[in-house]
Amino acid sequence: MPLLSNSPNHFLASLSPTDSDLLRPHLKSLTLPQGTFIYKAEDSVERVYFPQTGVISLIVGLTSGQFVEAGMLGRNGVIGAGAPLDGAIAINSAIAQVESSGIVAETVVLRRLARESETLRISLVRHEQVLTAHTQQVAACNALHELEERLSRWLLQTRDLVRSDTLPLTQEFLSQMLGVQRSSVTLVARKLQDAGLIRYRRGHIQVLDVEGLQDSCCECYAAINAHFRRLVGWSPDGGALGQLVGS
Amino acid sequence: MARYYFHIKDGPALIKDQEGTELSTAEEARSQALRSARELWADAIKSGSELGADAVVIADEHGRTLTFVPMTEALPKRSR
After folding, report:
1. Which of A77, A109, A200, B23 has the highest Cβ tally under 10 A?
2. Which of A181, A201, A203 sits opposite B39 (nearest CB)?
3. A180: nearest CA in chain B?
4. Rounded CA gap, B60 and B2, in Å?
5. What are the beta bridge partners of residue A71?
């Protein structure tokens, strides 16, 4: 395992040298193809996942078979940060929305290490907190904002996580994540395309105008980024902020 | 299972569904089109914007039109 300070995952990259040494022997690489579940609701979370690429969606399923996305994480976060803090039963499901490669560690090992190191424990708490902040913002967004704003937020967030203007997403997946009918996505995507903000091809969305998308987006994109900056020192464009936590 | 496409007719324009959805019956496709139409109405009414659709057009994988569901069909009946 190479030096963690170079890791594309923000949690790993921000660890103190001591915590880095503690963790390094217990980390393994993992690749999750698109559509793979990391865990489902009420599963026992045996492994904690630190994504380096791709996007992991946290989804809430209902008895009707419908589900909606409550939040997304990638290189900025930790999937299952609460598990080593004695919250090992999954509250929702986590699925690789875009193929993801990253690092895993056993929950039991992390739990032991988190008892040894207060700074490691604080980092895990902060990441669990930022996820709560993120999902609360999404709850407000889902309840009050229009689909065009929500779709714009969603595309901007996904673009930040995959670091590319080409997003491998089907409209079917998009409509499921946003909890709407596919025709609604068809119409709104068409509107964004007519405005020159995106280009949609079967299975791919190309972001053409980031500033334009930011204008058509609600406040939630900026609010979610502000939570990440304040709680874990992450911002989409990286920079010096990347070193705040654990230093 | 067959693949159904849900295009949206908006005046002279047809906004094509490029992906389609796997469904088991034509009846299921029709109820999905109605659900879509209801949602398009709801969004337009809620946001006070124009309804950008006249009908949901259901097509099969060969591009043949199967059913044409006018937006007005999705409107609720008066309760009395």
Report:
1. A77
2. A181
3. B39
4. 8
5. A58
